[in-house]
Amino acid sequence: MAGTKAPEDAYTAAPFVPKTPTGLAPLREAAAHCRGCPLHHAATQTVFGAGSAQARLMLVGEQPGDQEDRQGEPFVGPAGKLLDRALADAEMDPADAYVTNAVKHFKFTRAEPRKRRIHKAPTLREAAACAPWLAAELAIVEPELIVVLGATAGKALLGSSFKVTEARGTLLEREIHGRPERLLPTVHPSSVLRADDREAAYRGLVADLRTAARALS
User: Fold this and answer.
1) How far apart are the C-alpha atoms of 44 and 15, rounded to whole Å?
2) What strand order describes the sheet that includes 145-149?
3) Of 119, 102, 33, which Cα lies nearest the Cα of 61?
4) Under CATH, what is the fold of the domain 23-216?
5) Measured between alpha carbons, how far is 132 from 114 in angstroms, rounded to an integer?
């Protein structure tokens, strides 16, 4: 019935994903029109992944932030700049990685109209609704290693019992969306920015990324 709200567990991006995408460009174009869950209503635009289809490393975060939503590119805000610095300190070139998020629309709240938009974590069902996009990205890029940035990305890829504090810095082998994958979980760079001891949190992130670099060497 027109105007009837679909139940949250019925949300899925699957009808919007091309059946046989020939590359990242068709996926990105199709994702711009995704209406698979309600997050598109308030977001400025879909923020798809960025990078080469030949990238050996894929970095998967949670969702776009305020700046990403405005610019239409992932990891261009403060957390993205910190991640680029951490990758460089781990002797990895950020330009060699494909970066994306488990959720492609910015979820936020506002205390009052015209106040700044405050990040709100996506639910597991919202991440599950967006999973067909991530599955399609993985099928095109075929990375040798996935660095999982934070709890939301970890739960989206590894299940609801995932805890970043228990798994970080550990190389894992799992079947993800029907493909055998190697994964290395670590914290999301935004958590470093929020940490009481930023220097210690940053060193921990770099140490995890160095483990990823050794896994790719």
Assistant:
1) 21
2) 97-101, 57-61, 145-149, 179-186, 172-176
3) 102
4) Uracil-DNA Glycosylase, subunit E (3.40.470)
5) 33
If one counts every other C-beta atom within 10 angstroms of the C-beta of residue 185, the result is 27
Residue that has been written with the tokens 């080469």 in this structure: 52
- What's the sign of the alpha-carbon dihedral 72, 92, 170, 191? negative
**Tokens standing for residue 64:** 């776009």
Q: Locate tokens 């082998």: which residue?
A: 173
**Number of Cβ within a 10 Å radius of residue 110:** 12
**pLDDT of the chain, 217 residues: tens digit per residue:** 333 444 555 799 999 999 988 899 999 999 999 999 999 999 999 999 999 999 999 999 999 999 999 999 999 999 999 999 999 999 999 999 999 999 999 999 987 777 889 999 999 999 999 999 999 999 999 999 999 999 999 999 999 999 999 999 999 999 999 999 999 999 999 999 999 999 999 999 999 999 999 999 9
Q: What is the pTM of this model?
A: 0.93
- What values do phi and psi take at 112, rounded to 5? -145, 155
Q: How far is CA 203 from CA 50, 90, 127, in A?
A: 26, 10, 29
